[in-house]
Every structure is written in structure tokens, then in C-alpha cells.
């Protein structure tokens, strides 16, 4: 009975190890695919990270100095550029107003026949600038999100491979223990001597 239980548990562990190996392989492929795709898409945009001299605040330097002058190819670069360069310039141009706020103001003024047309034109330009900035930020942050998923998939693959190795070792030890239990059960039978019956 003990041998059967050990064998069953051991083979279950070996099957789970095989499943984890397959899952790890798929996760590693996903990680590689995402990383290559993000790099290819960002490289095609031909964006150069701002030079050190263009960084104005300490927050910008903390986030962007490590990438200064590099071609953008990673999700981390994309996030830093979106949050600490594009957004900073958008906020400076709009006095920290959002696209929605500027657009609403522009639409209201453009319907007023007495509105200052120069001001309307200025708001229209600012509205367009914020729209383009938000669009670019959204694309770059999507690249960052996919890049992050690729990193998570990579570490999940490593975890799957480690789990598979542990289950493989435990499964093999379990089979060895089942064989040892069988040998121990057979030993008394083999070693037993028949006692002659006396009349």
C-alpha cells in the first residue's frame, strides 16, 4: 500500500514538473516576443532621449539623466520620457490645465462672437499641442506596460523552471523511496525459514 501511494504521488509530481517546464517555455517565449516587439516599435519612432543640458529640474535629472542622448528602445525609457519630459512641457504650456479643460475653454470662446480671436487661436494651438502630447504619452506608456508584462513573464518563467526542478527531484526521490519500501517489505519474506512440524 505504501509503495502504491509513493508511486502515485511521485508520478503526479513528475507530471506537474513537465507541465511547469512547458509553461516556463511559453512564458519565456512571451517575454522574448514582448521585449523584441517593444524594442522594434520604439526604434522605428527614432526618438532620442533629451540631452543632459535639456533637463531643467532635479526630478527630470533623476528620471532621465541615465538615458541622456540614447535612442529610445525600452519601456522604462518610454515611461521616463512620457512622465518627466512630455508631461512637464505640457503642464508648463497649459499652466497645469488638462486637455479637457483647455478644450472646453476653447469651444466656449470659439462660440462667442465677441471673444478675442487672437486668444481663441492661441487656445486652439494649445489644445492641439496637448492633444498630440497626450496621444504620444499614451503610446509610450502602452509600450512601458507591455514591456513590464514581458519582464513579469520572464520572472514567472524562471519560477516555473525552478518549480519544475524541485518537483522533478522530489518525484525521483519518491520513486526511489517506493522501491526501497518494496525491498524492505520483501526482505522478511525472503529471509524467513520454514520451521518443521513435529508429530
Overall 3D form: elongated
Total E-strand runs? 0
**What are the secondary-structure elements, in order, as H or E?**
HHHHH
Instruction: Please describe the biggest sheet, giving its number of strands, its sense, and whether it closes into a barrel.
Output: none
% residues in beta strands: under 5%
Q: Radius of gyration over alpha carbons?
A: 33 Å
Average residue pLDDT = 87
The helix count comes to 5
Provide a descriptive summary of the structure in words.
The protein has 199 residues and is an all-alpha fold. It has one domain (2-188). Helix content is 79%, strand content 0%. The chain has 5 helices and no strands. It has helices spanning 2-45, 58-64, 75-94, 99-110, 117-191. Helix 1 (2-45) packs antiparallel against helix 5 (117-191), helix 2 packs antiparallel against helix 3 (75-94) and helix 3 runs antiparallel to helix 5 (117-191). It is elongated and about 95 Å long. The mean pLDDT is 87.
How is the secondary structure organized here?
Elements: H1 2-45, H2 58-64, H3 75-94, H4 99-110, H5 117-191
Helix pairs in contact: 1-5, 2-3, 3-5, 4-5
Amino acid at each position: 500500500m505504501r509503495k502504491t501511494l509513493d508511486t502515485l504521488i511521485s508520478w503526479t509530481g513528475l507530471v506537474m514538473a513537465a507541465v511547469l517546464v512547458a509553461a516556463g517555455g511559453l512564458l519565456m517565449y512571451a517575454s522574448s516576443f514582448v521585449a523584441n516587439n517593444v524594442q522594434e516599435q520604439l526604434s522605428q519612432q527614432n526618438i532620442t532621449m533629451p540631452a543632459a543640458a535639456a533637463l531643467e529640474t532635479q526630478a527630470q535629472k533623476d528620471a532621465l539623466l541615465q538615458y541622456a542622448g540614447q535612442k529610445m528602445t525600452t519601456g522604462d525609457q518610454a515611461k521616463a520620457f512620457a512622465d518627466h519630459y512630455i508631461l512637464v512641457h505640457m503642464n508648463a504650456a497649459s499652466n497645469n490645465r488638462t486637455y479637457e479643460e483647455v478644450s472646453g475653454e476653447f469651444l466656449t470662446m470659439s462660440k462667442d462672437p465677441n471673444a478675442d480671436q487672437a486668444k481663441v487661436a492661441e487656445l486652439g494651438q494649445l489644445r492641439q499641442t496637448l492633444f498630440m502630447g497626450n496621444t504620444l504619452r499614451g503610446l509610450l506608456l502602452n509600450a512601458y506596460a507591455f514591456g513590464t508584462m514581458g519582464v513579469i513573464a520572464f520572472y514567472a518563467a524562471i519560477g516555473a523552471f525552478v518549480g519544475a526542478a524541485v518537483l522533478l527531484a522530489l518525484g525521483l526521490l519518491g520513486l526511489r523511496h517506493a522501491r526501497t519500501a518494496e525491498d524492505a517489505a520483501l526482505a522478511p519474506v525472503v529471509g524467513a525459514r520454514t520451521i518443521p512440524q513435529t508429530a
